[in-house]
Amino acid sequence: MESWYLVLCKPRQEERAQTNLHNQGIKAFYPKLTTEKLIKGRRTLKQSALFPNYLFVCLESQNGNFSAVKNTRGINGFVSYGANYQIVPNKLIEQLQCERSQTLESTLPKSGDVVNVSSASFKNIQAIYKEPDGDVRSILLINLLNKPIQMSVDNKDIEF
Asked: Measured between alpha carbons, how far is 127 from 158 in angstroms, rounded to an integer?
């Protein structure tokens, strides 16, 4: 009977370990989280491990090639509970595999959020985030002289 086991990987080597295990014919999986971030003022989508440094491996409980997994590049070893390797329930793996493509977490403000502008000419002024204006800029609503003004600001000058 096949079971899923939890494996500890070396830091930021989940992809390498998964590729090496697949090359050996061993089923391996780690869920990924896609996040939208501002990097150097640009909106970028970045994928990272949902559980950093961990990987799920499917092996036969009795005749599985555990030593091949332990000796695979990028892997430190199995997570154990006492003398036994940690088994992960099949339902959890199925749920993670179904949801892995749907996960999107945004670290950017949403329309209507209050933000602070940190550019030299508008230092410490509060504004309302309206929408993105390309990859590098965003449109904000700023209240100047009791009148709402719509303006485009560099993303690096927005604090939220």
From this structure: 9
